[in-house]
TrEMBL record:
Residues of the GST C-terminal domain: 88-222
SUPFAM superfamilies: GST C-terminal domain-like, Thioredoxin-like
Protein name (Swiss-Prot/TrEMBL): Glutathione S-transferase
Gene3D superfamilies membership: 1.20.1050.10, Glutaredoxin
Pfam family, any one: GST_N_2
Species of the source: Notoacmeibacter marinus
Length: 230
């Protein structure tokens, strides 16, 4: 069985869990607090970041994109019509582009700041950067949310799924990222009906259920977080 070192409020970790579940790959979870920098974990990934997948023969695969490529080559290629990577070369390019849009661009402009200020800072010791939230960082992140919701609404309104006709890695990346903001109650879907309907479809998939059942200690989710139909 594979082992995933993850942090529940990390978009890449959520994305990896969704990939594993969609491909019906059994795995165990080990929660890793990135700021602790455990010596044993650093031996698996010297960068100290999650996710890290301990694959066959205890071989570590570190980083969201390397894990994605590993799972596509070892599981996706045998999934046929359930493969999460589009069949044609341009479809794969678009799915990869959008995956990076959410896991890197949205993460760097919004999610990472929201999680740091609202989730991790209160838990971290002061010598590790803990303390009160930075109101300016939160304000900037909230302003950036609007553009990402607008773009998601455009994609969802012009395609069946974000990258094309079929569910792909792009939908899981977007769902993983936006679900963190959904947990924190930071998403205003008004005026973004297409994005809201798309998110409801993604949120209703069986692979999403474990995410919807988790809770951050001391920080309950928004009232509608666990409701696939809002």
């Amino acid at each position: 069985m594979l082992t995933l070192f993850h942090y529940p409020m990390n978009a890449g970790s959520r994305f990896t869990r969704l990939l594993l579940s969609e491909y019906a790959v059994p795995f165990t979870l080990i929660e890793e607090l990135p700021w602790v920098r455990r010596r044993e974990f650093l031996q698996l990934n010297p960068a100290g970041s999650v996710p890290v997948l301990l694959a066959e023969a205890d071989q570590p695969v570190a980083g969201t994109i390397p894990i994605l490529e590993y799972l596509d080559e070892t599981r996706g290629s045998m999934a046929r019509e359930n493969r999460l990577m589009p069949e044609d070369v341009f479809g794969r390019a678009e799915a990869r582009r959008l995956t990076l849009w959410y896991l890197e661009k949205c993460e760097n402009e919004v999610t990472r700041h929201m999680v740091r200020e609202r989730v991790t800072r209160p838990l971290m010791p002061t010598d590790k950067g803990g303390g009160s939230p930075d109101a300016g960082a939160l304000r900037a992140a909230r302003n950036n949310i609007k553009q990402h919701l607008k773009y998601t609404n455009y994609l969802a309104g012009s395609r069946n799924w974000l990258a094309g006709d079929r569910l792909s890695i792009a939908d899981l990346a977007a769902g993983a990222t936006l679900s963190i903001l959904d947990y924190l109650g930071e998403l205003d879907w008004s005026g973004h009906d297409a994005a809201r309907d798309w998110y409801a479809r993604v949120k209703s998939r069986p692979s999403f259920r474990p995410l919807l059942q988790e809770r951050v200690r001391g920080l309950p989710p928004s009232a509608h977080y666990a409701d696939p139909d809002f």
